[in-house]
């Protein structure tokens, strides 16, 4: 009991944050429960036949945009809070000196959970390698971090259901673990840029205090602000594109190109996906629409993974620390993993 | 006078962190020198794995993401 009879400012601030969090969640639940009535009402306002092509496309758009944005808000917030339990420095300390194998598994898992922004990719890579994290283990982290991110998982969950999201998580981790293990076994340390090998990390002098709960809620809010603030235009563009496919694209044509019968569509999807740069936000609504038109799940997953995990901007950033030969190995190994996932899926869900 | 270094390759957040340090110093009425460290090797030398990082008088106080204003004020005063 407090001697002064009141509550301390810190405790007061904590209560304000917790109350704000509860109010936000309640508002979210209310908005989500009203999605269908509101979108139906909006569509009914339009001077359009609901069952015309344009009507179908617009109804799809008006329902999907708020639904996807709402679910994404929730997933990104939750991931932001979860990630406040991890930091790159602590992850590095956990991974330093790990054996190949178990280290790859741990690295891929931490890659999903550790806060990571692509502009930190190079400092992180150097920080890991120079502190004694094996190269293959570092790669497992670097493959998992962008591929299995909250935006991809949130959108898959919103548009295709939790089963597909879970399968994506599982296969994403499997690719990161295997590709990192293969790169580790090849012993390619000498293919790093020479200056990287000469760096010795200073002692980790930073003492990180565990954040309190209000700080964790704040971290969730900040990641909503950062991530949803950045990707919403992509989502709207992606859903608009998906709506056009939904309303206009001929199903027979798409099914013949991206359907299960066309075995070559998986490698083609990976090759087309590598130079394409979109993020999960732009690509997943398109994927949903393609699936609706008869494209095979393995083919579109392979396409999506190669767009997200192997992007030219990321490779250009990594070029600062990796030799061209090592980049080629990285692309080949990850590409092979994605191919395997695509084929396996089409086989399993035939 | 405190010497503050902001570690980062020059992304948007690193610039924002520099601005925050300057604002915090101005608000506290403290003279500080703020410099940016953009060289990857030099950044790694401080033992951090995420940017932006903040170093006050040679001691790493922060790594990864933007600092909280209250923490900044504490580091500058400490």
Task: Write up what this structure looks like.
Chain A: Pfam families: ArsP_1. Chain A: Its main location: membrane. Chain A: This is Permease. Chain A: Belongs to the UPF0718 family. The complex is a heterodimer of chains A (350) and B (78). Chain A is an all-alpha fold. Chain A contains 17 helices and no strands. Chain A has one domain. The relative contact order of chain A is 0.12. With 78 residues, chain B is an alpha+beta fold. Chain B has a single domain, classed as Glutaredoxin, CATH 3.40.30.10. Chain B has 3 helices and 4 strands, in the order βαβαββα. In chain B, helix 1 packs across helix 3. Classes of the chains: A mainly alpha (350), B alpha+beta (78). At the A-B interface, helix 4 and helix 6 of A face helix 2 and strand 4 of B.
What is the general shape of chain B? globular
Text of the CATH class of chain B: Alpha Beta
Structural class of chain B: alpha+beta
Count up the domains of chain B: 1
Helix content of chain B: 40-55%
What is the CA–CA distance across the termini of chain B? 12 Å
Give the total of beta strands of chain B: 4
Biggest pleated sheet of chain B: 4 strands, mixed
A few lines on this structure:
In chain A, 75% of the residues lie in helices and 0% in strands. Chain A has 350 residues and is an all-alpha fold. Chain A has one domain.
Overview features:
heterodimer, A: 350 residues, mainly alpha, flat, B: 78 residues, alpha+beta, Glutaredoxin, 3 helices
């Amino acid at each position: 009991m407090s001697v002064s009879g009141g509550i301390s400012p810190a405790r007061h601030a904590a209560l304000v944050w917790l109350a704000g969090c509860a109010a936000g969640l309640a508002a979210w639940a209310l908005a989500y429960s009203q999605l269908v009535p509101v979108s139906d009402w909006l569509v009914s306002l339009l001077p359009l036949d609901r069952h015309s092509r344009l009507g179908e496309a617009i109804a799809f758009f008006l329902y999907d945009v708020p639904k996807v944005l709402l679910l994404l808000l929730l997933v990104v917030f939750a991931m932001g809070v979860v990630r406040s339990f991890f930091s790159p420095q602590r992850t590095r300390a956990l991974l330093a000196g790990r054996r190949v194998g178990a280290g790859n598994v741990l690295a891929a898992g931490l890659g999903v959970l550790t806060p990571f922004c692509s502009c930190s990719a190079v400092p992180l890579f150097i920080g890991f390698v120079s502190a004694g994290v094996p190269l293959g283990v570092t790669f497992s982290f670097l493959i998992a971090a962008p591929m299995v991110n909250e935006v991809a998982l949130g959108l898959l969950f919103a548009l295709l259901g939790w089963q597909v999201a879970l399968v994506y998580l599982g296969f994403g981790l499997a690719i990161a673990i295997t590709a990192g293990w293969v790169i580790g076994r090849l012993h390619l340390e000498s293919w790093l840029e020479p200056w990287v090998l000469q760096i010795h990390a200073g002692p980790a002098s930073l003492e990180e205090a565990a954040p309190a709960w209000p700080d964790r809620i704040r971290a969730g809010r900040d990641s909503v602000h950062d991530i949803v603030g950045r990707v919403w235009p992509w989502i709207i563009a992606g859903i608009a594109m998906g709506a056009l496919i939904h309303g206009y694209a001929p199903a027979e044509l798409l099914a013949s190109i991206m359907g299960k019968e066309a075995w070559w569509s998986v490698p083609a999807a990976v090759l087309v996906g590598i130079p394409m740069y979109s993020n999960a936000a732009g690509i997943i609504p398109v994927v949903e629409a393609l699936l609706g038109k008869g494209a095979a799940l393995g083919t579109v997953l392979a396409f999506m993974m190669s767009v997200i995990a192997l992007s030219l901007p990321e490779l250009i950033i990594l070029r600062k620390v990796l030799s061209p030969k090592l980049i080629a190995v990285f692309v080949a190994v990850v590409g092979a993993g994605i191919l395997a996932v695509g084929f396996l899926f089409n086989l399993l869900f035939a | 006078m405190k010497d503050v270094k902001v570690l980062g390759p020059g992304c948007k957040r690193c610039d924002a962190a520099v601005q925050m340090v300057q604002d915090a110093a101005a608000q506290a009425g403290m003279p500080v020198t703020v410099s940016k460290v953009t060289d990857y090797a030099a950044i790694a030398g401080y033992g951090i794995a995420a940017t932006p990082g903040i170093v006050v008088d040679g001691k790493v106080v922060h790594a990864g993401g933007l600092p909280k204003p209250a923490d900044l004020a504490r580091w500058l005063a400490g």
